[in-house]
Design a protein that fits this description.
The complex is a heterodimer of chains A (401) and B (79). By secondary structure, chain A is of the alpha/beta class. Chain A contains 13 helices and 15 strands. In chain A, helix 1 crosses helix 13, helix 2 runs parallel beside helix 6 and helix 7 packs across helix 13. Chain A is globular and about 60 Å long. Classes of the chains: A alpha/beta (401), B mainly alpha (79).
Amino acid sequence: MPRVVITGLGMISALGRNVPESWASLAEGRPGIGPIEALDASNLKFKNGAEVRDFNPEEYSLKADYLDRFAQFAAVAAREAVKSSGVTFTPELGVRSAVITGSCVGGQNTQDTGFVELYGKKNPRVNPMTIPRTMANAGASAISTDFGIRGPVYTISTACSSSNHAMGQAFWLVRSGAIEVAITGGSEAPFSYGSLKAWEAMRVVSPEMCRPFSRDRKGLILGEGAGMLVLESMEHAQARGAEILGEIVGFGMSSDAGHITKPSAEGAAMAMEAAMRDAQVSPMEIGYINAHGTGTALNDATETQAIKLALGPQAKNVAVSSTKSMHGHALGGAGALEAVATVMALKNGVLPPTANFNEPDPECDLDVIANCARQQQVEYAMSNSFAFGGLNAVVVFRAFR
Amino acid sequence: MASKVIEIIAKQKRIPSDQVTIDSTFQELGLDSLDAVNILFELEGEFNISISDEEARKIKDVRQMVQGVNALIAEKKPA
């Protein structure tokens, strides 16, 4: 089977508007979490978020009027990824390329604005761009149009696992030889009042910080942004002399078939095991896990059990961190932000920490990288995503040396 | 009134309003169907009128649009 390499990365998040800015924050353990600025949070029980600051879509000459914030993020991150890859989508390559993105809620801001007009202001009409801006595939379509990519273009929506499912599909499509190049990742922009109120009602958002795996953790912090990867067959990348940043070697998925929101250790472990099988690696070879690590009491304890189930004795040796402590939980975009973090970690030999960590929790007795990044060369890393609805998706990355 | 219509069209196409005249056709201006729905939306809001799909389909240039809007505004006023 052809090897699938990563030749381009793009990221926009609370940590920065591009990969170098975001990586600098990740490597320094500097969170991008602060008081919510997108809207008046005085009627919300939580006040903090991980928002993209100083984002002006006009700077990117996007068709911004036609794109919700989530799709603008997708387009911006894809441009960075394509630029860094150096790939040129000729008409011939365009038909042999794919765009596969993840998003949980799509154009939530646009829909929320429309509802305010209808139900709040009793205005009988909504903006005519509401439908194309709200559709979850708007980001994928914008990227396809931007680069003339005319092969498989679609969006996967599996809540917080959306990006990992998307990247896994793209990986398999390239590995199978069905396509040559893929732009893949995900994006989210959940900072609308209606959406935040819904999260408030779930009672899983922290009233203060996000402290994954820490005994005093109080919940997740919502984030926004996009991550994008350019994947291609190693043959294609080498033929054009591209710099190879890393490799995807395995993808696994599973469903808990259980509770709609309560995670299952067995289900999560099944996805990790499937990903390792797909990658043909043993647990002993996994050196780092970028955890789902939302910072809720339940997720982090269950994920700890899952890692023990899947990795056996290696569970106590593997370095674990949750970068959601810095870029927040970007829902359908989360796996993509974490993929960029993981690829950069493997490439640079620097494992980003779990920020805001105060004290170990006996229920999360893993080797959690606390607060300061760790200098460590790792060959294989796993990135976990576990979604509401019990849907688990895990990607295995390899350092390219 | 005509200048307001022209202003709305120019804003949608992101072109200077002096490039839009009462004689401009939508084809000349390069207005696509998506531009059209946005312009109709703006006109409805600006003049507090309701433009039916049927009326909208018949309009092919700026003059017809101004006439159509004028007619709808006139209908609103009691004779």
